[in-house]
Amino acid sequence: MTAAFAGLDACVHCGFCLPACPTYEATLDESDSPRGRIVLMRALERGEAPADDDALSWHLDRCLGCRACESVCPSGVSYGPAIEEARARIVAVRPNPPAVTAGLWVLARPARQRLAWWASRLARATGIPAALARGAGDKAPLLLQMFAMLAATTPSRRRTGTPTHRSRGRERPDRHAPGGTEATAAPAPDTTAALFRGCVMDGLFGHVHDATIRALGVNGVRAVEVRRQVCCGALAAHGGRPDLARTLARENVLAFDAAAPGVPIVTNSAGCGAALKAYGEWLADDPLAERAHAFAARVRDVSEVLVERGLVRPGRLPLRVAYDAPCHLHHAQRVTTQPLDILAAIPGLELVPLEGADRCCGSAGLYSLVEPELSRDVLAPKLRAIAVSGADVVATGNPGCLMQIGAGALLAGMEVEVRHPVELLDLAYRQ
Ligand code: SF4
Ligand code: SF4
């Protein structure tokens, strides 16, 4: 038995996890529930069901990997590593769809990514994807949904937003955004943290990195750049490619140890954070195991770093904001209060309740592209809850969630903006 499947041993089949599972909620099929999938994974592990079994791969592939089941399980079942192990066994005999294979090939090397992100930003800057997607409805063809996801990465034009601190980011400042001012009241930095840039975050959300650097700076943390870093490997791990995920993890451990030894590693992406914090397990049998454990222990979400520092008081930001918790922050990292603490610290900002804020939005890496129908079904109650909340802005700290909720809102013709909490904090510092 592998260590990943051993994490399922604690399951007593009580079913407490079923109501927490977004795919079970959408299909009401036991095989689309955590308990049902655990039975399937056990059958796979024992050789009672082959990895190329149609029903087995159908139900396991439809798991979002959101790990909401872990948060509610009274027995402490470790579901996440098991579903990744199961995916790896399935992909070994049933290769991923060509689009996923191509996507992982691009993400594997920064040089390939640069071209893809450049082309994406060029398309985004034309405004055509946003214009075509706006109001197209949730049954829009997949191409329009992809346009909507790209449009959802556009930097905000709310009051200010021009990046003012660019030490490495690859995105060009939005020259049409109204001008802003440099972060106010920034004290001399008294500590440093190495910024983990990631792939999607760096390619399409450079403005969030800029906001992160500024907000850290206001709070006395100087962001150090690590030039040889690569993608965290989360998408490879979720996509059944642990070999690629481990290769990327090794490169990151070596890069951060060389450029910023012993320094905390800060990330603003929930998915990256969950992966980086798992490097000790990913590389447990590797010659770099000890360094990978030490690396993982240094990783902090930006909200953890800022709240631990004690926030410098921001300026006033009169907005109604609903917080939606990214699964890989809330369930996988158990970072639950810090983003709310940041938003609550902004004078004038009204935090409005969002029903189901801790439930998955249906993004889940590449899931929204390979399982578009179920992804839409999972997103639908989230969009209804956002409409009921009356929020001007939905705040969420993960690129996939920003794109999924932003795209859903655009397709539905909703006026709400979707922003990273650190963007709002940065905006408040620049009032
Ligand atoms: S995973 Fe946990 S909550 Fe779900 S059936 Fe098993 S023991 Fe019960
Ligand atoms: S990870 Fe999420 S989608 Fe998968 S079984 Fe658990 S709750 Fe359901």
Molecular structure report:
The structure is a single chain. The chain contains 24 helices and 8 strands. By secondary structure, it is an alpha/beta fold. It has a 4-stranded parallel β-sheet. A 4-stranded parallel β-sheet has the order 6-5-7-8, sandwiched between helices. The longest helix has 18 residues, at 242-259. The radius of gyration is 21 Å and the shape is globular. 51% of the residues are buried. The structure holds iron/sulfur cluster (SF4) (2 copies). One iron/sulfur cluster is lined by residues 11-17, 34-35, 38, 69, 73, 75, 77.
List the helices and strands and how they pair.
Blueprint: H1 3-6, H2 22-27, H3 34-46, H4 54-61, H5 68-72, H6 79-93, H7 98-107, H8 110-126, H9 128-133, H10 142-151, E1 191-195, H11 200-204, H12 206-218, E2 221-224, H13 234-238, H14 242-259, E3 265-267, H15 270-276, H16 279-282, H17 289-298, E4 299-301, H18 302-309, E5 320-323, H19 327-330, H20 338-344, E6 350-351, H21 367-370, H22 372-389, E7 393-395, H23 399-411, E8 417-419, H24 421-429
Parallel strand pairs: 1-2, 1-3, 3-4, 5-6, 5-7, 7-8
Helix pairs in contact: 3-6, 10-23, 12-24, 18-20, 22-23
Bound molecules: iron/sulfur cluster (2 copies).
